Amino acid sequence: MSELALAPAAQDLLFREARTANTFTDEPVTEEQVQAIYDLVKYGPTAFNQSPLRVVLVRTPEGRERLVKHMDEGNRAKTATAPLVAVLATDHEFHEELPRLVPHSPGVGAAYFSERPVREQSALLNGTLQAAYFIVGVRAAGLAAGPMTGYDAAGLRAEFLDDDHEPLMVVNIGRPGEDAWFPRSPRLAYEDVVTTV
């Protein structure tokens, strides 16, 4: 009997067989699929329910052209051909949403997040956590994700965001194409990672 409650097929889909895709078919990713992904992953916990992740979906040829020029050379071709690309970013003004997100604690924004450097640090941690949920959500939809951090962050910010938002990663999304996977790299064993005290 497995020690995990999640069915083995779901474990494989979300983790064991999940790979970073480098090529994609031309099958479109629909707005309904992305909405379903978000409606699932929005429940992943963050500190104070702050939810700083913001998503820019790049669908149009014009948007793709604007994005690709900011990607590192090795990421340009796959970003140009993925059916959908998501720019995942953090919102440094996330505290403005806290009255709605934490209605039982109306003073939490002023008490903990009145200073910009504190918000930036918290948004980075919690936004990255939400980005990981997003990637798992893409996999839960039966799609492949190709997350990347090889880009010009200042260029992305200027092109798609503003000074209150910081790009975290760019994620290519779609059905895996031909030769989509690099060979699987090794992973650390349990005893290499876990210490009991």
Overall description:
Helix content is 42%, strand content 15%. The protein has 197 residues and is an alpha+beta fold. It has a four-stranded antiparallel β-sheet. Helix 2 (31-41) packs across helix 7 and helix 3 (61-68) runs antiparallel to helix 4. It is globular. 30% of the residues are buried.
Descriptive terms for the model:
9 helices, single chain, 197 residues, four-stranded antiparallel beta sheet, 4 strands, alpha+beta
Helix-strand blueprint:
Blueprint: H1 8-16, H2 31-41, E1 53-58, H3 61-68, H4 73-81, E2 84-91, H5 98-101, H6 108-112, H7 116-140, E3 144-148, H8 153-160, E4 165-174, H9 190-193
Antiparallel strand pairs: 1-2, 2-4, 3-4
